[in-house]
Amino acid sequence: MSITEFNLPTKLIFGEGTIERLGEESANLGHRAMIVSGQKTMRKLGLLDKAVDMLERAGLDVILFDKIEPNPRASTVDQGAAISRQENIDLIVALGGGSAMDAAKGIALASAGDKSVWHYVTTRDNPAGKVPALIMVPTVSASGSEVNSGAVITDWTTHEKRVLGRSSLQPKVAIVDPELTLSLSLAPTLAGGVDIFCHAVEPYVTASHPEPLNDGWRESMLRIVVKYLPIVRGDLHNREARRALAWASTMACSSFASLGGGDGSMTLHGIEHPLSGLYDITHGDGLAALLPSWLADLSRERADRIKLLGERVFGSTDGKAAIEDWLKSLGMRLHLESLGVEKEKIPELARLAPVSSPWIKSNPTPLEQEDIERIYRMAF
């Protein structure tokens, strides 16, 4: 019998207009705050200035670090950590998508010590100092990083994209305001939706000991994405759909998704990470390109789960075909070649996969070098 332990210490504040709670919640956690955000976008939308104003009106000293790139790099995180350490920051507020939230976690951890964030990625060491409190304000429905203690960081010198995880990085507060996603353009909206879908579908399909209640949670999340992502594609300002996707995003990558038992792991994510690490490909686009070939490979061992997925989520007995049709309807039936991946790099990508993502060894089908290369080739 498997044992499930549920612990979600993050205070989740969800709903339209909840961004107005940022100042109040920040004042409860710190005095000197750093806002971590992406390059240009948040300032262009006016959200960065608004966040600064709310924090200052709540009595906090505020500095900005808005240099975060997609697939945040260890070198950028180290820059932010040095500033945080120097400025005695006790609260870090992430404003943006998964990259900003992951970088904020890396900055928080590294700022509490004197080593590069990559040291903490590659070891189980913890810094000697106190890790600043974290508040997450997602502006993209995708990663779910606002309610978990993990972060994905890339070393651009080795092109390894790896997971950083510590209990000290569990956010104290997550403010999920669906209205913040209304201005998001189509491409990141669709890529984010595919990411949500994969967060739920990967453990669902790979599970070796599925449980009925756990299946129910994940099936519900999948049905929400399948229904509402096409609606948002047709109307980027559809509030009902944006709200539904925001809930699915937050829940799909939280400890809530494990309730009811069951197991499974996100091995597709592990195969995608080298693509983002080597080519800086948008994570959701990489997942979309690999998803059909990953499912085809898994069908050798998980045909029953893929069939069940088709029946319960799509109303079809052919789950793989249903997913491909859904991706096509969104304009997200992508291929590695169109994303700029070079065939001659496939061996290097396959080498990086188990280095960057050791958990892929738990995949139901073997994922040795030749197996991973085959999946990449199928995705061309």
Describe the protein's architecture and organization.
There is one protein chain. The protein is an alpha/beta fold and 380 residues long. It has 2 domains: 11-180, Rossmann fold; 185-378, Dehydroquinate synthase-like - alpha domain (Dehydroquinate synthase-like, alpha domain, Up-down Bundle), CATH 1.20.1090.10. It is 50% helix and 12% strand. The protein is built from 14 helices and 8 strands. The protein has helices at residues 22-27, 41-44, 47-57, 74-86, 98-111, 117-122, 186-206, 212-234, 239-252, 267-279, 283-314, 319-330, 346-356, 369-378; strands spanning 11-14, 32-38, 61-68, 91-96, 133-138, 150-155, 160-165, 173-176. Strand 6 (150-155) and strand 7 form a beta hairpin. Helix 8 (212-234) runs antiparallel to helix 9 and helix 8 (212-234) packs across helix 11 (283-314). The longest helix is centred in the C-terminal third of the chain and has 32 residues, at 283-314. The protein starts with 10 loop residues before the first strand and ends with a helix. InterPro entries: ADH_Fe/GldA, ADH_Fe_C, BDH-like.
